[in-house]
Amino acid sequence: MTSVSNPLYNQFFINSTPEECKERKETDFSITTKTWVDTAKSISLLILKIIIIPWGLYEGIRWCVQRLAMTAICPAQSWFVKTFAHKPFQTQPLDAARCDFAKNLQDKGFIVRHIKLERDGVPLSGLLIGHSSTIKNKKWALQALGNCQPIEDAYGFAENYKETGYNLLLVNYPGVGRSQGFATPKTMGESQETAIRFLEETLQAEKIILAGYSIGGGAIGEAILQHDFPEDTSKYLVVRQMTFSRISTLAAHLFRECFCKNFTENLVHWASCEMDNVKSSQKLQNLNIREIIIQGEEDEVIPYETSLMKPLWELEIEENKEFRLLEDIHHNDATPVLQETLERIYAWDQQVSRPTSNVA
After folding, report:
1. How confident is the model at residue 345 (pLDDT cuts 50, 70, 90)?
2. Residue 7 has pLDDT above 50, yes or no
3. Sign of CA dihedral 216, 221, 226, 228
4. Residue 210 and residue 239 in contact, taking contact as beta carbons nearer than 8 Å
5. What are the tens digits of pLDDT across the range 213-231?
6. 142 with 195: CB under 8 angstroms?
7. Cα(321)–Cα(313) distance, rounded to whole angstroms?
8. Of 315, 324, 242, residue with least CA distance to 282
9. Do the Cβ atoms of 192 and 142 come closer than 8 Å?
10. What phi, psi does 35 have (nearest 5°)?
11. Which residues pair with 329 in a beta bridge?
């Protein structure tokens, strides 16, 4: 068993009393990337937009288009959806779900901790979940979820990851549950990038899985583009589950009967809604980080022609990649996708854990 010397880690998990393990326990982790100069520039720019009315109107229209688009991309963060269409996304029922979530897992020997991450003053809600048999091993998985799945509904993921000996970190996107702020591709990526830093800096994880399902694959992709990885990247594995190549490509396919392809793609870029998973896959290849791409053959939400798998094959971005095309699997068939994920993680973990030969 790996010894754990991180004082916060010890306080948070190992030295917790049995009574504490039965309750949700919170901790804070804050990252500030904006300086006072950045804040001053933002305020000055806002004042200029108000003074110059046409510019202000233009930016206002673009913001409205973005919010409409993000309602489709990430409904769980939308005030309109939470208020009128799907009340289980509201904070109170999600709080109740989190308590049930924690109790059910704790009855099975899991330790559950609610954490508050913070990015540039914006609080983000997360869950740390580890089994008593794995919590000391410093092996962690960050799983980014789909667009209608708050972390409070991700009960099954913890039990699945436990099978491979990995503990689990889940973080809600901005605007989802107790996470505040507005969800955009940039801020969704920041929420997951903050989680990566938490695993690296606070928990000092020795092996890290970065996984994303559907829109979560895009959020992980944005986090990868934003993150400064260390020189030694051997401890990382990335898994993209049922995700797209680019939001613009997916949107053009979905609205092909209504708008021309170029118009739709340009609109996505104009509204700052693009997520480019191809670009993040290229970065992973350059960093020599292994990536596994899992796609369902019968995925009706993200069909093969819009999937991440297709352009990587066509552009021959295949170094350190593993492609898994699952037959007869639809977009929401999470169980076989997770099973494939766990098998790939187990194989990778065994490979990197194997002692290196010292033969000259």
Report:
1. very high
2. no
3. positive
4. yes
5. 999 999 999 999 999 999 9
6. yes
7. 10
8. 315
9. yes
10. -95, 175
11. none
Domain boundary among 73, 96, 123: 73
User: Do residues 29 and 41 share a domain?
Assistant: no
Question: What is the domain extent for residue 61?
Answer: 36-73
Q: Are residues 165 and 261 both part of a single domain?
A: yes
**Category of 80 on φ-ψ map: left (φ > 0), alpha (ψ -120 to 50) or beta:** alpha
Residue type, 278: V
Q: Has residue 28 got a pLDDT over 60?
A: no
State the DSSP string of 295-315: EETT-SSS-GGGBSHHHHHHT
From residue 141, alpha-carbon distances to 17, 40, 67, 144, 209 in Å are 25, 37, 30, 10, 4
Mean of all residue pLDDT scores within the chain: 87
Q: How far is residue 225's CA from residue 277's CA, in Å, rounded to a whole number?
A: 9
Report the alpha-carbon distance of residue 21 to residue 15 in Å, rounded: 10
CA-based nearest residue to 321, from 292, 343, 345, 342: 292
| pLDDT tens column, 139-187 | 999 999 999 999 988 877 888 999 899 999 999 999 999 999 999 999 9
Q: In what order do the strands lie in the sheet with 139-144?
A: 28-31, 110-119, 122-131, 167-171, 139-144, 207-213, 236-241, 290-296, 321-326
CA distance 33 to 172: 20
In a domain, 1, yes or no: no
Is 99 within 8 Å of 105 (Cβ atoms)?
no
Same domain membership, residue 42 and residue 63: yes
Residue 69 in any domain: the answer is yes
Q: Domain total for the chain?
A: 2
The reply to whether 127 and 46 lie within a common domain is no
Prediction pTM value: 0.87
For 295-312, how does the pLDDT look when each residue is reduced to its tens digit (9 = 90+)? Answer: 999 999 999 999 999 999
Token output for 22: 């039965």
CA-nearest of 267, 325, 278, 293 to 72 is: 267
Residue whose token pair is 């289980």: 88
Q: Do 201 and 321 belong together in one domain?
A: yes
pLDDT at 47: 72
The Cα 203–Cα 149 span in angstroms is 25
